[in-house]
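We give this protein:

***
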Amino acid sequence: MPSIPLPLKGSCRCGRVEIEVSKPPIATAACHCPGCQKMSSSAYSLTAIVPADGFAVTKGETVVGGVHGEELHHQFCEHCKTWMFTRVEGVDWFVNVRPTMLEDSAWFRPFMETFTKTKLSFAETGAARSFHEFPAMEELEPLMQEYQAWAKAGEASS
């Protein structure tokens, strides 16, 4: 896995909303849940879990789309409807950024995959860790530490 060329700049498909990631992810993932499958129109969605203070919308504004629930706030470009990032209610220390929005996503590899109980039979991610559903909250900190070691090892081998 190549090193992450920070800062990373990106945009929605039409370019009306631009984002910037200035800190490396604390983890990366692919999600096979039915909601992510529907929102991404694909077998799974990809996410880079970025520290909130390392993420900014630098141009334009987003609107909430997808599930308009109390917990998840999926952010979209209002014009082209691109799903750009997600914020979790009550969790203000990270943002789930869709890495394919970034100009350079060659560094991205999913460390973990979640919701494999609804994984499509052909969908392979190459993730190091797999979870039948979502990892329990108490598992997150150890997983983030494991991700850091995994990402370093990947940089050293590329």
Q: What stands out?
A: The radius of gyration is 15 Å.
